[in-house]
Each structure stands twice: as structure tokens, then as C-alpha cells.
Amino acid sequence: AQKITQTQPGMFVQEKEAVTLDCTYDTSDPSYGLFWYKQPSSGEMIFLIYQGSYDQQNATEGRYSLNFQKARKSANLVISASQLGDSAMYFCAMRAIFSNYKLTFGKGTLLTVNP
Amino acid sequence: GAVVSQHPSRVICKSGTSVKIECRSLDFQATTMFWYRQFPKKSLMLMATSNEGSKATYEQGVEKDKFLINHASLTLSTLTVTSAHPEDSSFYICSARDRTGSSYEQYFGPGTRLTVT
Prior knowledge:
The structure holds 2 protein chains of 2 kinds.
Chain A: E1 3-5, E2 10-14, E3 19-21, E4 24-26, E5 32-39, E6 46-52, E7 60-61, E8 64-69, E9 74-79, E10 88-96, E11 104-105, E12 109-114
Parallel strand pairs in A: 2-12
Antiparallel strand pairs in A: 1-4, 3-9, 5-6, 5-10, 7-8, 8-9, 10-11, 10-12
Chain B: E1 4-7, E2 10-13, E3 19-25, E4 30-38, E5 44-51, E6 57-58, E7 67-73, E8 76-81, E9 90-98, E10 107-108, E11 112-116
């Protein structure tokens, strides 16, 4: 079974600063993928970034980067130069290779960007 | 990019009635679709995996007779909440996997907010 833990129910950051959202995971599968999604108040799930367990380099997508530390089983999301529009719920999720592409989500972190 | 739609976006129904939610992949074929449920300020909980042309696979604790899932084509899956009760009020989100895309591609619909009165 897979488990995702997000220990920060809420985070605050000043506009233009960087923020790190924590995510740790647990799985016994040898191959897996880690995802981050953004969910604004409107409800849609917006894919941000993906990291494969065998990827040698940390994933980056624009202002988003994933700090992947496999030995620690952590996959923290770093948002640089925060914008007011970044205020939303952020979910970390995992898919294991033998899970038929099912995603297991963490409880989420509510990020508030202050002007 | 790949687009998944859901209809309706919001629905209010009376207790005891049934309501159908549609999930469509608009510009790709989806052999697999997933249905999630989300309570306010909570995480997404996978309800079932819907495979085109076969029976859905339900997660433990999800009543398959209450949440009927049909995946009759490569672009459409439906979730029917039968004999709805107020505790079924929730946000229902579907996602679809592009069978021709990379292995991790999964696209989410905008969600359907169900309120049972």
C-alpha cells in the first residue's frame, strides 16, 4: 500500500518569496511516480510537476521544482517567486507501478500568498 | 492539451432520487477513468477505476450498488449515485488516462458538486 503524508495543513508566504511544501511517502514498490497538483477554490485539479522514482535529476517546471530525496522518501515542492495566484490547496500524490495508475493523495496544504 | 469535461458542474437533488454525472475525454481516448470523491477541505479519495468495456473496480468501502459506474465508450464514463442521501453530498472528480500518452499522463475533470437535500 502507498501512503502520502503532508504535515503542513497551511502555509503562508510573502509575494515574490519562495516556499517549500513538504511531502513524504511510503511504498514498497520498486518503481513509482510522484506528483504535485494545485487545486484552486474553483475545484479543478491542475497538474504541476512529476518525478519518476528512477529519474536522476530533480524535476523542474517553470517556477516549480521538486526536491526529490529518495533515501528520505521525500518529494517537497518548491515554488519560487510566489504570486498571489498561487494561493490554493496543493496535493502531493503517488502512483506505484503495480497500482494500475491509481493515485494516492496526501491531505493537502493550503498555501496563502500575502501581498 | 488533453481536456476532460464533467457534466453537470453542480447539481442539487432530493433525497431518494438518483443523479448521473458524466465524465468525457474531449480530445483523446481514455481506456481508464477514475472517480474520486472529495469532502470539504479534505483530500481526494479514490472511489473506483473505470475501464472501457468492463466492470469498474471499486475501492474498499465503496458501495458498488450505490455508486454505479459505466464506461461504455473510450470517451465517456458515467457515475450514477442511486437513492441519494444528504451524506452523499460531496465534490466528485473524474480523471482519465490517455492510452496513447506517456505512462503517467492522467487528466482531471473540473468536478461536480452534488448537494442532496
